[in-house]
Amino acid sequence: MAQDIEICSFLMGSHKTNKIIEWMKSNPNEKYIYVIPNLSELEDTEDTPSRVLSIGFETPEVDKENKTKSESLYSKLVLGANIACTHALYKMLSKKHLELIRQQNYIIVADEEVSLINVYEQASSADLVSLLNDNKVEISEEDGLVKWVADDIVSEPYKDTKHKHHRFYVHITNENIYTTRCTKKNGVYDNAFMVSQITKELVSCAKRLIIITYLFKGSVLDAFLRLKGFNTVKFEDIGIVEAPLQDVVSRIKLLPYDNKLSKCKLSSSWWKGADASDIKTINNYIRRVSEKEGFESNLVMWTCPSDRVKGAGKSKVKNFINPVGYTKDKAGDTLWLGCSVRATNKYSHKKLAIHCFDRYPHVAIESYLLDYGIKIDKEVFAITELLQWCFRGNIRVDGGTMTLAIASKRMYDLYLKWTKGGFKDEF
């Protein structure tokens, strides 16, 4: 099965998705699973017919015979149907799903990078340390896998669904939990970051795994695949002629950096500690840019951490980003667009993009990978996050244009570096 992971890495706007859908259509003897971030892109309506459903793909649905979408997907695998599903459902596939994918020789095409490694937040570091010190778990020296080693008598209480650590126990026994290297002080384990990972078989079960992305090298997914021993090669089965970078850059009007924001670092830690004055500064910036550029509110999108957007995050902060006149459009839809939104045409009418977030890999994921000798390129991570977000707007349309305002000096400088050809994928 797949040992070489094939990467289709081209600039946004290169029609990668259209080309690969045409490629699948022209190779009907193969079986495909097409994986996409958002369910909305799989919805088939009279106004916006789904590109992939139009060529005979099926989506898992709950019905009388299938109580969950996972069951529905399994039924379709048995029949050898071509299937379209979301990243979230793909990551939930069980061993029986993976075995069917292997038996049926499916090709998996993932539109945008699938997040195969995430921060684990359903238990604390203290919970893990307690289990370590009680000799109920141990950690693999090879990759930090947390293994349950307690005997049946000790384990029995954790099997009770009412036990406070039942879910943690299940995730450990399913081999989903990994940790940074743990050290001992005076014979007792200290602290550690935890991450959750998808089983390696989710990557290797297919006949071929093709990932559609941009600037793959140095990304979190690249780091994960290297850690797991996979080789990556360039996917070249479709004829994509990437537009010259300057043709794309010329359609994006970059506004000058606003020196009034020089004291605003805009990183995650800065946002967590931002006071009322800081929030007012960003609110005024978004409003000032929007009014100066003269776009109607429905053509504006802006981003910051969800915790600072009322109703979007779980934080209990008191001060939110709600620029007067530019919080919602006339239809009542929010102008805030999460920085991790991917693979959707829903916002392609947006002409002004205001980015207010200095992006870094999560410290737990970065620390874990570094502990096992794998490095993420922080600059590649940041510029990819910025560009993917910006390309949700009108720039993704043929001939479309955007005005871009970047509040973070670091992100602004990285964007300038990108415009000069400073970031390239090399295989």
Q: Mind explaining what this structure looks like?
A:
This protein is globular. It is built from 15 helices and 17 strands. The protein is an alpha/beta fold and 427 residues long. The two termini are 21 Å apart. The strands form five sheets. A six-stranded parallel beta sheet has the order 3-2-4-12-1-13, with helices on both faces. A four-stranded parallel beta sheet has the order 14-17-16-15. Strands 5-11-8 form a three-stranded antiparallel beta sheet, with helices on one face. The longest helix has 18 residues, at 276-293. It has helices at residues 16-25, 69-79, 87-90, 95-103, 125-133, 152-155, 166-173, 201-204, 220-227, 245-249, 268-273, 276-293, 363-371, 378-390, 409-419; strands spanning 4-9, 31-36, 83-86, 106-111, 117-119, 137-139, 146-148, 177-179, 184-185, 188-189, 194-197, 208-213, 231-234, 252-254, 300-303, 352-355, 402-406.
